[in-house]
Amino acid sequence: MSEEQSKYDKAEPLYERVLAIRKKVLGAEHPNTALDLCNLAFLYIGQGEYDQATSFLERALAIFEKVLGSEHQNMTKSLQALAICLRTV
């Protein structure tokens, strides 16, 4: 296992833990929960796991659009990341 992969392997459970706590405390459709979904997606992008990243980004986008509106800055950043994933798959 490369040192870089080891870093991802250590980070992933931490991101998942943060997401679980955020869902429990704030709810599954809170904007901060969506940001945590994005953080996991960016982790997966860094690992080249674009299908998994796409799933997390789509969930985050649905929350952002519902709660913040389609023109919020979090929408644009997430859409850009999703475009990268879709282009790469």
Automatic annotation (TrEMBL):
SUPFAM superfamilies (UniProt xref): TPR-like
GO biological process, one term: microtubule-based movement
Subcellular location: Cytoplasm, Cytoskeleton
Keyword annotations: Coiled coil, Cytoplasm, Cytoskeleton, Microtubule, Motor protein, Repeat, TPR repeat
Keyword Cytoplasm: yes
GO molecular function, one term: kinesin binding
GO CC terms of this entry: cytoplasm; kinesin complex; microtubule
Pfam families: TPR_12 (PF13424)
Annotated family: Belongs to the kinesin light chain family.
Protein name per the record: Tetratricopeptide repeat-domain-containing protein
The species this protein was found in: Jimgerdemannia flammicorona
